[in-house]
Amino acid sequence: MASTSARVAARTRARDAQRKVLAARAERDKANMDSLTEFFTAAEEIEAARRRQAGALAAIRQREGTLTAAAALAGLTLGEARTLLAVLTAPDPAPDDDAAATSSTDCLPRTADASDSSESAV
Fold first, then answer.
1. Per-residue pLDDT at 113
2. What angle do CA 104, 58, 105 make, to 5 degrees?
3. How far is 117 from 111, CA to CA, in rounded Å?
4. What is the pLDDT of residue 95?
5. Is the model's pLDDT at 102 over the cut of 80?
6. Is 122 within 8 Å of 110 (Cβ atoms)?
7. What pLDDT, on the 0 to 100 scale, is given for residue 100?
8. Residue 13's closest CA among 23, 5, 24?
9. 3-state SS string over 12-77?
10. Spatial separation of the C-alpha atoms in residues 115 and 40, rounded to whole Å
């Protein structure tokens, strides 16, 4: 009889321990979901800000006539300016489509500015 009650008590302790483990996991999962929501919201805000920056740079480029001049006014290198302008021509990646998110810039149309043939429009 004592061994039966010991087994019952051991099972009860094991169930209680498992409940604590599951409760801790649920608490961590909820905290992680909150953090991930904040993370992805910030990522969307950053992407929106980059699109606004790219639009402003494109407007400066149109007024100044060259990407070099626009980059100089914005305090960017020519490579940074090209990368930023690529944001305007890049398709919006699908949430689950890794191929669209890592698309190559080689397929982007390129044209030369009249005053600087080494610059390419993106």
1. 46
2. 5
3. 9
4. 57
5. no
6. yes
7. 47
8. 5
9. HHHHHHHHHHHHHHHHHHHHHHHHHHHHHHHHHHHHHHHHHHHHHHHHHHHHHCCHHHHHHHHCCC
10. 41
The pLDDT of 7-14, averaged and rounded, is 94
Contact criterion met (CB below 8 Å) for 122 and 86: yes
Both structure tokens of 54? 């790219």
Q: How many CA atoms lie within 13 A of 5 on its CB side?
A: 2
In tens, the pLDDT along 105-121 reads 444 444 444 444 444 44
Domain parsing of the chain, residue ranges: 2-89
Taking the C-alpha atoms of residue 67 and residue 72, their distance in angstroms, rounded to an integer, is 8
- List the structure tokens of 19: 């409940």
Q: Which residue is listed with tokens 């991930």?
A: 36
Structure tokens of 89?
Answer: 């021509």
pTM of the entire structure?
0.57
Which two three-digit tokens encode residue 121? 């429009």
Note whether 55 and 61 are within 8 A (CB): no
* Higher pLDDT, residue 95 or 120: 95
Strand partners, 120: 112
Residue 12 carries which side chain, given as an amino acid letter? T
Residue holding tokens 């690529």? 86
The size of the chain, in residues, is 122
